[in-house]
Structure formats: C-alpha cells, structure tokens
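Predict the holo structure. Ligand: 3,4-dihydroxybenzoic acid.
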Amino acid sequence: MLTRRQTVAGFGALPLVAGLGGRAEAQEVVKIGLILPMTGQSASTGRQIEAAAKLYMAQNGQAVAGRRIELIVRDDTGAADVTRRIAQELIVNEKVAAIGGFGLTPLAFAAAPLATQSKTPMIVMAAATSAITEQSPFIVRTSFTLPQATQPIADWAAKNNIRKVISLVTDYAPGIDAEKAFKERFGRTGGEVTAEVRVPLRNPDFAPFLQRVADAKPDALFVFVPSGIGGQFVKQFVERGLDKAGVKLIGTGDVTDDDLLNDMGDAIIGVVTSHHYSAAHNSSENRAFVQAFRAANPNMRPNFMAVGGYDGMHLFYEALKKTNGATDGQGLIDAMKGMSWVSPRGPITIEARTRDITQNVYVRRVEKVDGQLYNVEFDTFEAVPDPIKGR
Ligand code: DHB
C-alpha cells in the first residue's frame, strides 16, 4: 500500500493530491440514529427496518451532498423509558441530524418531546397511531396509520355480505384506532359490530377471547394485532376451529405480516385484509426491492416495516440533498414536507400540512404462489391520506 508521502512523491502532483485530501476532510459525517426494538416481542420490526435501511445505503451510497452518512442502530427492547434515554444520548452525545425507527406507538410518544426540544427531525418508520405526528412539529412518518389501513377492509366487508362483525384488537392506541375506524366505516353501510374485544399487548393469550367469538358466531372477526403477533393469533384461531365454523377472518395487513405469513399454514389461505404493502405488490420497483432485500438477507422476506425503513432513509437522503448537506433540523424537516416519490409500495407523499403519509391501500387475499403464501392484491384505494387528519 502507498503511504501519503509515497503517493505525493510518486505522482509529483502535489496540488492535485492536496486537493483530493482537502475534499476528503470536508466530507463531514452526518449521523442518523435508528431506535428500534432489536430484542423482545417486537424484535422482527427492528430486524426488518435495520435490514432495509442498510440496503438503502448500500444501493444509494454512503455520501450525500458531499457528506458521509453514518447509521447508528440502538436497541430499545420495546421499552419506552429506554427509547427516551437512547434518543437523549443520540441527540446530545452523538449529535445526530435525525432520529428514526420507533417500533411501537408508546415508543414514538416517549421520544416526541425530545425531538421538539432539540429541533431534531424524527422519522417514524413503524408506529401507526394517527395522533403520533401531532406530538411534535418535528415528526414525519413513512409507515402508515391504522385508520388509513382499516377503511378499505370495512368497505370490502360491507360489499361482500358481511353484516355482523366482532372486532378483536390489541389493547393500546393503534388497536383503539383500528377498532374505532372499522366500527365507524362499517356502520355507515348498515353493518354492525356486535362486540369489541381488546387483548393485552404483552404476552397475549387469545384463547378465551376466541371462545367468545366461537359462541357468538358472527359473519366475520375483524382483527388488529401488531407486527410479530399474527402467527400466535392465527394458530389459536385455527386451533379453536374458527376457520371451519364459517367465521371469516378479516383485518388490517398486520395480522398476515409477510415476515410470518409463510409459516402460518394453508388454513390462512383466503383471508382478506387491507394494507399499504405486500411483498407480492406487482411493480418493477417492488420486484427490484424484494430481490435486493433477499439477496442481502437470505432468509428474510421484506414486510411493511421494511418498506417504512427503506422509505424513511430515502426521505432523509433526499432532504439532505435539498439542503445541500446542511443539517439544521428546521431546514431538514421543511425539505421533507410535501415530498413525493414512487416507493416499492406504490406512489407516496409526505403531506406538507400533517407531515403524515398519503399512499395507496390495497385489498389483498392470501394465496399460494409458487408454493409460498402471499397477500395477493386485488383492489386499490388510491392516494389515501390519514382519514382523521386529512390532507
Ligand atoms: C404499531 C406496531 C405494529 O407492529 C403495527 O403492526 C402497527 C402499529 C404501533 O405500535 O403503532
């Protein structure tokens, strides 16, 4: 290897070498810190987002507007006090230009005041309660909202002779958002939610709730459980024989999460859900994304968390391009507002007023494709904003 002195001597072109050296030094580091559950019940969310963020960087280079991007990933274990402590450390000690991730709603709520106080952009890549973006003017979101994902399945149910539904949701903010959105939308068409059941977030046991559903025999069971829990839920649904008892399972796509879907077994075939992302989404952007994600992570299929992480990195890169590498928080957040692009999930916009995401929501049915289970999209609700905040 050549030393610097040998290089200079060897080429005898001091101004050129000095010029290159100068540029390298000017390439100051810009850090982005991802706070993710890498362990615990929501570890799959962390794994998916980290893999997608690293893929984005591998595909788009480590340098933006003459600055070198450094990704820091920290595990908050899914505990809000840890999220808050890590956010503080990243902002104060690491001097990150932005924080991202946020695997669960309470974790996003915990970090929001720090984003406001320090004027640090906070990119919510996973959590999906509508009200999150209202917790700080420095929050933007690249995931989705539960009311946004829920309305299309309520409409589909109404159109498909489903009249009486029991709703079963995880008992925390996004579950309550889903429950309310389903009841309201389904009720408008004359449908009826005959019972609303809530199950705990931590270590849920669905059996007693599913027994109530089996006894009541509704036309369908509407379900929201967060990413990572769908497998346990479906196993118990099938064990209770609900699939054979004629109770249709419907929900947002969190329950048929691509990360777990292929291990759910054939009993899940035919389940209809609505969501903003399926690994089977039929577009050239998505085919390229899925192929590259699998090449970099051989035993993984990207899910909706991955696409939130991938687009969150895109938003950060593009904002930094717009500011010519300036990292002032207000400048970055202003650059993010109103941005539109074609994601692997389809066209998306970060609304300037709400800082929330407008996107297509697809109605999908679980089918076997080449021996693998997928959510196959068959209907599209185009450019859906969060229905609570609007555009
Ligand atoms: C949230 C978490 C999830 O894993 C999900 O699928 C939807 C919402 C949340 O906590 O906001």
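The pocket of 3,4-dihydroxybenzoic acid is lined by residues 45, 104-105, 126-129, 174, 226-227, 254 (CB under 6 Å). The CA atoms of residues 67 and 116 lie 25 Å apart.
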